[in-house]
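User: Teach me something about this protein's shape.
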Amino acid sequence: MKVLIIGPAFFDYTKAIAVEINSREVYAFVFNELHSETILSKIAYRLKLDFLFSLKVKKYRSKIYQYIDEHKITDVLFVSPDIIDKEYLVEVKQRARIHLYMWDGFCNKKNSLSVLNLFDTKASFDKFDCQEYGLHYIPLFAEKMYQSNDAEKKYDLSFCGTVHSNRLMWMKKVQRFAKDNNLRVGLFLYYYSSVLLFIRLLMNRCCFDLFNKVSYSGYKKEEIADLFKLSKAVLDITHPNQKGLTSRTFEALRSGSKLITNNENCEMLGREYISRIFIVKNIENQQEALLEFIELKIPPLNAKQDHFLSIERFVDQILENWND
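Assistant: First, the predicted structure itself:
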């Protein structure tokens, strides 16, 4: 078996999956889904203006076809594609089996729905999408670097994420909650453009103090892992309408931290993790319970719990799904 993974460059998760597949003595390589990672290209893709560089996209896809042929690729995994169409998939399918894994809900990425029938196997992190569209349910993962090392806690609460959708309002509430209760907070905030973020802040008329706390180059995964290991609790604010459990869920828990999240579906993790999770709906009305949860002592993860949260389990399930 030889595997090609085509997906977003986001935090190099696709590369991590490839490395784990390679550890099983299966050849795996990664192609970025986008032909270019420049800010202008990303904005154009986001605004559905990719027709402006259609010739470059066509040339890039020809490069992918050539790679599949030259390296005798047997399986191509598309990870949460933003840009997908029938013509593209048919070309790839003439050369190899094609598989889909979604780490976004179809409510946020509708493009793949029109071509679902072309994939040989389909899987998602979203249990509800799986039930509705007939996909195989495979939860996300945390890499080895997130594994707990029982480090002394430096922060009461931490957050790492892109400043999108309603997160500005959440950050404003978190800052107020932390100040009122003298909490030590670690913040890793990211946005892809300082200009666009400034416009968003102007439009929302809030959180201007966050502008200088945002990174526009991103953070290394090792830095995020260290932040989580040093935190009593990690806050995860999901994208509106998202139901699946994000990678932050698994990374926070595997780091030995507790998880505070607005995703009520975290309860599907089961009783083994329920004492480590707090579902937040309204910070102002849950302050006392939140403070108690932050100070709650929890035992270390056992081997079974850690394995379920791991990338090793994730890749096992991916490959098993292909071979069923």
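Now, about its shape. The chain has two domains: 2-141+311-323, 144-308. The two ends are 15 Å apart (CA to CA). If you'd like, I can walk through any region in more detail.
User: That's plenty for now, thanks!
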